[in-house]
Amino acid sequence: xxxxxxxxxxxxxxxxxxxxxxFKNFFCLQDLALKFSSCHELSDPGYQCLKKTLQVFxxxxxxxxxxxxxxxxxxxxxxxASRNLPKLRSLTLNFDICLQVTDKGFENLSKSLKRLTRLxxxxxxxxxxxxxxxxxxxxxxxALQKLFSLQILxxxxxxxxxxxxxxxxxxSESFKELKSLHTLTLFFGYNNLFSYGLNNLSQxxxxxxxxxxxxxxxxxxxxxxxxxxxxxxxxIGGLTSLQxxxxxxxxxxxxxxxxxxxxxxxxxxxxxxxxLEVRFFQLLTVTNKSVQTIFSNLxxxxxxxxxxxxxxxxxxxxxxxxxxxxxxxxxxxxLKHLKLSFESSKGSIRKTLLKERKKVLDFxxxxxxxxxxxx
Length: 375
Fold this sequence. Notes:
With 375 residues, the protein is an alpha/beta fold.
């Protein structure tokens, strides 16, 4: 094969040892994705070979590495490999199982990231970090402060039980140096975050005046309360450049109608947004008032093209929450996609949703509508 036209490559291989030999002639490669599925026995020598393989591609600009699992030792090897990629602009690290990753691994990751000053996109997915503490996460956030060119930041840390407000506070501080960010995605699940951490994050979001896309998810963060949602709403409401907003909260007895209504009130004046998604799961104190308030605040969002509202397993919501929802959508002439979900809600909500769907199609005949429970 000729090396000339070969500039973009996605590989799905289990035997890393063969990769270097196979592609050693493609030194012009700029985009590389390595996805190793079900490679539970991938050893340190395999990672060492991967390190040597990456050195074959000095012009690499976009690197995506996905593995089932990793450890401190293997993470350190990958970090050392990335240091030899001076032209790297985009880095994605995705690990499904990180049971053996500790602060030591993240200390080395942070050292490597500090050198990648050309990065414009960074995506880190670390799931099930049972042994990672706040100290390691704080090291990571300090490294972010060196990435002045960063435009896209995505951090997904699900089932990270030792994370607390200190880590989120440190992340918030890094925003002062990330003024070029236009896309921010943060997902944190099942940890020790309180509203104090979310308040801190919210206050620092105001710095990101160029932000166009924001996705925030706090799954199973049982200590977050109305105070956190209220603070978040105030900050988001001040980011007038936002075009796409997605917020997710679940399983907290401290989130009530008060917090959701305050969040909704703050968003209603962002009439430039094109996508709005709000998802609430298993909030047992939330009632129809939250649903009605969200719908009533949609009227001025005339640029909205995609809308998603979900209150799954919020047991106090019934058909009265969605009654006449179609009236709130009449001004949304640009709406192309509508997704509503009220799984396990009480009463005849399915029948009410069906009626409202027909009304919406009367004035938005081309709108693609998806509703749960299934109609």
